[in-house]
Amino acid sequence: MSMVSTLGKIAVGIMVAKGVGGLMSKSSGGSNNTGGGLGDLIGGLMGGKSATNSTGNTQSGSITDILGGLLGGGAAAGGLGGLLNSLSGNSNQSSEKTAQTDTANDPLGNLLSKAFGADESTPEPSEEEKAKIILKAMISAAKADGKLDDHEREQITKFVGDVTQEELAFIKSELDAPMDLDGLIQSVPENMAQEVYMMSLLAIDLDHQAEAEYLDKLAKGLNINPETANAIHEKLNAPKLYNS
């Protein structure tokens, strides 16, 4: 196994455990018609199986397709990575690069395609390191409401499956560790700031003041301005963090 594939499994577990509202509401009757709720689809999505939604339509066999549809693209690469490429001139990319949608120029999209099984090629060492950072960020964000009870921990690890002892130890260490947002912020490379913020938001159902304060501190620590943060929230169907 790899840390990249482990990222995909833990990401699913976190979104189910925390009942991430934006994704759940979109998947239960939004414009993408993805069916009766992300949680109901997980069992069929893991391992490349098909699932049937509440309208009787067969879902694609890859969780990438479901997440991609929920996040506004035809695949996870288009939905998440494409968002980063299109954000209002704050992404440190030229307008020419911003206009590109080719996944070859989309590091986050490539990483997520491997994490969620759409791309079975071997992850690069740099992708393994990036997956570790995003895993740390998502697990930290899952603690933002002040609790990570036994049921949530069980849900988060439910889909882990076949991982190495090293990967399992890493997951357990991150789940057991007290939240250290300052330490996380210091560990994030500048070119991963928006990726980390976006994936952290996917781990949060923004319905507690503590979660809003966590995201505000994360955004400020990663030098993400309010306009960019709000754009990410809007794309992921989450409440905006800042008033206009």
> How many helix segments?
14
Approximate helicity band: 55-70%
Instruction: Measure the end-to-end span.
Output: 44 Å
Characterize the overall form.
globular
The radius of gyration over CA amounts to 17 Å
Structural class: mainly alpha
What percent strand? Answer: under 5%
Low-confidence stretches: 26-64, 70-78, 88-104
- The arrangement of helices and strands along the chain is HHHEEHHHHHHHHHHH
Spatial order of strands in the largest sheet: 1-2
- How many structurally independent domains? 1
Tally of DSSP β-strands = 2
Provide mean pLDDT, rounded.
Answer: 73
Main sheet summary: 2 strands, antiparallel
Written overview of the protein:
- This protein is an all-alpha fold and 244 residues long.
- It has one domain.
- The chain has helices spanning 3-17, 21-26, 38-45, 63-70, 76-86, 95-98, 107-115, 125-142, 150-157, 165-176, 181-187, 193-201, 209-221, 226-235; strands at residues 51-52, 58-59.
- A hairpin with a 5-residue loop joins strand 1 and strand 2.
- Helix content is 57%, strand content 2%.
- Strands 1-2 form a two-stranded antiparallel sheet.
- The protein is built from 14 helices and two strands; from the N terminus they run αααββααααααααααα.
